[in-house]
């Protein structure tokens, strides 16, 4: 019997493996459906904020409670996928933890030793004449200070020597038989002759030697003023030169430059004054060090590299220009991209010459500029807490990248039947085998480093958000049609976006960062406990996208930051039915804000007393509340005449409406925490609001009988909102909207 070809056997086996994976992946979902009926938490399909450990009736609408499992469970995500142990093994899934440690980048560079241009000098002719003798025979000659370089014949110099010799003789004659006036005249002529030679760059010793002669020399010897190597000859013997003509160039070798080339991706790890280690083939086994002194601000458009210059000490003269060098830079970087260098702790560095360092403030011995602390150049001694702490790192093999997006799969529960969640994250630069995480992950979470694409493919098959299509299966919602519990907590976000727009228009980078930090706190503080499961799933997805956008925008200029954040908020608004247009808020006077705060400080305890069914405490607090309401010109007659708790609750409704209107007129985002809570059952189903200092529900209209009935319907003010988000001018803005809903 003939054996079938291997290729014909491969297809059925592959199909069988795919079938088994799909079957195993589907098992946990079926298992979850079978177990949902035994759920220990019961909720209301109309009021998902109701959570009870036992079955019964909803305290709001009296509908029968259902197990939370039948609603799909709150807190899940659109990208979650369950895989049983057998399927996980078949898919060969591997996980690794997210780490918090210093990002150790190793950069390899290649370059060449060159002369230190600061030590290159050109010797010029001090006078016109004929070069009778030139002692520098060839380029590369080593010279020392004081060595004879050339002999030059110059009529100008001959006359200058002659004048000096005559002036010396004239002074001697005047002292012998002349008057004091004659002596003074001859001394002035002597000083003039000496000054003429000094201007021709003769030293005091050379001038004194000429004074002692009887006759001037026809030629004068020129000496080297610097030690080094002759890099260029401009003349030969017999050449006639003019004053200022170059004769030769000398380069000192006590220091050299190392010219390197770095790729764009390497620049993030290179900083001024950073240590560079390198080796040269001519001196095996020895490692040299220098410090980065210059990073070219312009990229080579053809080769896509940037020139980097390193200042290197060379006292032993081992390094010679033209030598090739292999350099390495090891950079440990903190969370805010500062280089961690314990050796620079407490050091002061020259901003022009990084090789000049000191343990205390002072001036650069080369250029005279003030030394600056190493911290100002982007260095820290160690990774502390906060911004200078160690960055969060995720294995590079865990990241699925497409365009500007990065997706990882996180294991959200333990074996034997693990569940995985796809998550978009914000990433920074790649460091060795890791990416720096800007947002979306926390230390210790387990990410899939092998098999992540298989999980993502499963989500693609199910038409759910994945790496390739982040909005798969999602449908845009009509404007302002979001669930009321989410809508109420969201309202401060468009106002913060308006503050960011104002900061972008003014180019206020500090104000933009402050506003984005406050917006991040607002997004993170939105509670999903009272949301329907499907809304909670969507919010989990889009809130993560907003937080990623905020993390990315923090390092951008205000205009670009606003555009990044605006797009993410607009996307969330479109798919959740939330308002997303920026809302500009006007500011009230400090006196008005103070009056509102006094009223709220008295109002909140009054509401708490009603929620506690404490009549005595409510009446006592009413006495403190009434004067504050009068100051705000709010009617208090119904409140003042109430004698029992029912009457006080009846007075609370109009009082709350009036106080809420006052806050919206001039106190939005300026009076601390103030949330509008709504009870749909109050006053026989008519419904009523009350103000709360937090998001917890404590119903003042029903007290203990229906204490948790209600939900947050609006956010008037949050401590997370920065002052920069408010118009500091206090002028009416034509685009102002009192309430985004």
Average pLDDT for all residues: 84
* Major sheet attributes: 9 strands, antiparallel
Low-confidence stretches: 1-39, 69-75, 723-741
Top CATH class of one domain: Mainly Beta
Give the number of DSSP strands.
34
Structural classification: alpha+beta
Keywords:
741 residues; alpha+beta; OB fold (Dihydrolipoamide Acetyltransferase, E2P); 9-stranded antiparallel β-sheet; 6-stranded antiparallel barrel; 16 helices; 33% helix; elongated; disordered C terminus
Q: What would you say this structure looks like, in words?
A:
It is built from 16 helices and 34 strands. It is an alpha+beta fold. A hairpin with a 5-residue loop joins strand 20 (324-333) and strand 21. Helix 3 (155-177) packs antiparallel against helix 4, helix 8 packs antiparallel against helix 9 and helix 9 (509-525) packs antiparallel against helix 10 (533-553). The protein is elongated.
Describe the structure concisely for a colleague.
The chain is α+β, with helices and mostly antiparallel strands and 741 residues long.
Helices and strands in order:
Layout: H1 6-35, E1 42-43, E2 51-52, E3 66-67, E4 80-82, H2 85-91, E5 94-97, E6 99-100, E7 103-115, E8 120-124, E9 129-134, E10 142-143, E11 148-153, H3 155-177, H4 180-199, H5 204-211, E12 219-223, E13 228-233, E14 240-241, E15 246-251, E16 255-263, E17 275-280, E18 288-295, E19 305-313, E20 324-333, E21 339-340, E22 348-349, E23 357-358, E24 372-373, E25 379-380, E26 392-395, E27 400-402, E28 405-411, E29 419-431, E30 434-439, E31 446-450, H6 452-461, H7 484-490, H8 492-506, H9 509-525, H10 533-553, H11 558-576, H12 590-611, H13 615-631, H14 637-641, H15 645-666, E32 674-679, H16 682-685, E33 688-692, E34 711-717
Parallel strand pairs: 21-25
Antiparallel strand pairs: 1-2, 1-3, 4-29, 5-31, 6-26, 7-16, 7-20, 8-15, 9-11, 9-14, 10-13, 11-12, 13-15, 16-19, 17-18, 17-20, 18-19, 20-21, 22-23, 22-24, 26-30, 27-28, 28-29, 28-31, 29-30, 32-33, 32-34
Helix pairs in contact: 1-2, 3-4, 8-9, 8-11, 9-10, 10-11, 12-13, 12-15
């Amino acid at each position: 019997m003939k054996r079938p070809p291997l290729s014909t056997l491969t297809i059925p086996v592959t199909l069988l493996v795919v079938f088994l994976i799909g079957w195993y992946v589907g098992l946990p979902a079926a298992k979850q459906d079978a177990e949902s009926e035994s759920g220990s938490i019961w909720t209301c399909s109309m009021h998902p904020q109701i959570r009870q450990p036992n079955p019964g009736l909803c305290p709001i609408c009296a509908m029968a409670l259902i197990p939370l499992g039948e609603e799909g469970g709150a807190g899940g995500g659109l990208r979650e996928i369950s895989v049983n142990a057998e399927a996980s093994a078949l898919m060969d899934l591997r996980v690794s933890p997210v780490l918090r440690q210093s990002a150790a980048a190793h950069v390899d560079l290649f370059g060449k030793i060159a002369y230190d241009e600061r030590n290159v000098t050109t010797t010029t002719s001090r006078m016109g004449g004929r070069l009778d003798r030139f002692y520098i025979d060839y380029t590369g000659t080593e010279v020392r200070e004081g060595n004879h370089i050339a002999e030059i014949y110059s009529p100008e110099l001959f006359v200058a020597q002659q004048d000096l010799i005559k002036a010396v003789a004239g002074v001697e004659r005047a002292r012998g038989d002349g008057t004091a006036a004659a002596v003074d005249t001859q001394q002035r002529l002597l000083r003039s002759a000496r000054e003429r030679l000094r201007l021709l760059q003769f030293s005091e010793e050379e001038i004194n030697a000429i004074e002692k002669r009887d006759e001037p020399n026809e030629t004068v010897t020129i000496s080297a003023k610097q030690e080094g190597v002759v890099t260029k000859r401009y003349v030969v013997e017999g050449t006639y030169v003019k004053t200022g003509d170059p004769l030769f160039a000398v380069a000192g070798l006590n220091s050299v430059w190392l010219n390197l080339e770095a790729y764009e991706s390497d620049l993030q790890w290179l900083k001024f004054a950073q240590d560079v280690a390198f080796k040269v083939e001519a001196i095996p086994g020895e490692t040299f060090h220098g410090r980065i002194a210059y990073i070219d601000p312009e990229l080579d458009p053809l080769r896509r590299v940037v020139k980097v210059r390193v200042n290197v000490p060379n006292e032993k003269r081992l390094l010679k220009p033209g030598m090739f060098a292999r350099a390495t830079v090891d950079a440990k970087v903190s969370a805010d991209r500062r280089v961690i260098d314990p050796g620079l702790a407490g050091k002061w560095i020259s901003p022009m010459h990084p090789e000049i360092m000191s343990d205390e403030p002072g001036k650069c011995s080369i250029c005279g500029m003030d030394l600056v602390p190493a911290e100002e150049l982007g260095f820290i001694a160690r990774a502390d807490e906060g911004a200078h702490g160690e960055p969060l790192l995720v294995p590079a093999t865990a990241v699925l990248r497409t365009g500007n997006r990065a997706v990882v799969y996180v294991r959200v529960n333990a074996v034997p039947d693990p569940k995985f969640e796809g998550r978009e994250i914000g990433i920074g630069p790649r460091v060795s085998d890791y990416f720096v995480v800007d947002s979306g992950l926390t230390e210790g979470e387990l990410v899939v480093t092998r098999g992540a694409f298989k999980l993502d493919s499963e989500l693609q098959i199910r038409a759910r958000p994945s790496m390739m299509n982040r909005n798969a299966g999602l449908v845009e919602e009509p404007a302002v049609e979001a669930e009321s519990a989410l809508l109420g907590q969201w309202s401060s976000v468009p106002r913060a976006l308006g503050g960011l727009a104002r900061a972008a228009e003014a180019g206020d980078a500090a104000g933009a960062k402050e506003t984005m930090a406050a917006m991040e706190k607002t997004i993170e503080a939105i509670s999903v406990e009272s949301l329907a499961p499907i809304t909670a799933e969507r919010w989990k997805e889009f809130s993560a996208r907003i937080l990623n956008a905020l993390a990315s925008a923090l390092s951008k200029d205000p205009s670009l930051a606003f555009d990044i954040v605006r797009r993410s908020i607009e996307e969330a608004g479109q798919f959740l039915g939330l308002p997303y247009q920026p809302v500009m808020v006007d500011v009230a006077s400090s006196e008005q804000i103070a009056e509102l705060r006094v009223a709220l400080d008295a109002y909140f305890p009054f509401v708490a007393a009603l929620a506690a069914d404490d009549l005595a405490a409510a009446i006592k607090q009413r006495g403190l509340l009434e004067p504050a309401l009068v100051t705000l010109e709010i009617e208090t007659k119904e409140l003042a005449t109430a004698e029992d708790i029912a009457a006080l609750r009846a007075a609370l409704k109009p009082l709350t409406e009036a106080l809420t209107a006052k806050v919206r007129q001039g106190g939005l985002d300026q009076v601390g925490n103030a949330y509008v809570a709504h009870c749909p059952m109050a006053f026989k189903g008519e419904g009523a609001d009350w103000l709360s200092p937090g998001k917890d529900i404590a119903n003042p209209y029903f007290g203990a009988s229906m204490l948790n009935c209600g939900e947050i319907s609006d956010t008037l003010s949050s401590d997370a909102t920065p002052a920069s988000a408010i118009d500091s001018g206090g002028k009416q803005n034509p685009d102002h909207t009192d309430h985004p809903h």
